[in-house]
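Quick check before the chapter quiz. The format below is the same one you will see on the exam, so make sure you can read both the input and the output lines.
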Amino acid sequence: MAVPAAQAQPSGQASPSIWPPVLEVEHVLLQTSLYTRHFNPQPDHNNTQELISLELHNPQRWLVGGARFLNSFDQETVYLYAGREFPFWQPGDNVTVRAKLTAGLLHGYRGEYQDNIPFNRYGTAPAALPSVGVQWGRFETDLIVFGTAGAMIIGGFRF
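Here is the expected output.
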């Protein structure tokens, strides 16, 4: 079946994407936790989060992601989120300093620890996490502040 002339693409041009620009994936970021510190440590606090996260980033610096980790009370927890990066300094060709803000749902604070995060109902609560980070080539690292409870350093690679 022949393509009508009006629909044919000129030689050398890519056909238009079926995905809207917001759904284009520019890169994928895979990260893990490197260091955690609670601002007011308690004996039952866990500082080994075993975090693994995966983020999909589009060319407009929007992102969606998910993370699995052990929360402050050693409970398996999931954070599903969306957010955006805000680059604010590029000291070199291959280095960018940026802020990031994500917001989504946090699930996993249960039992006696359910009230340790605000608005937790049925083990799920809204959450927003600000961070500052550095991208150096394919490597990225972030300092994430989780409310008044503490901070975590994570690092990983973009693909």
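If your answer matched, good. The CA atoms of residues 111 and 123 lie 9 Å apart.
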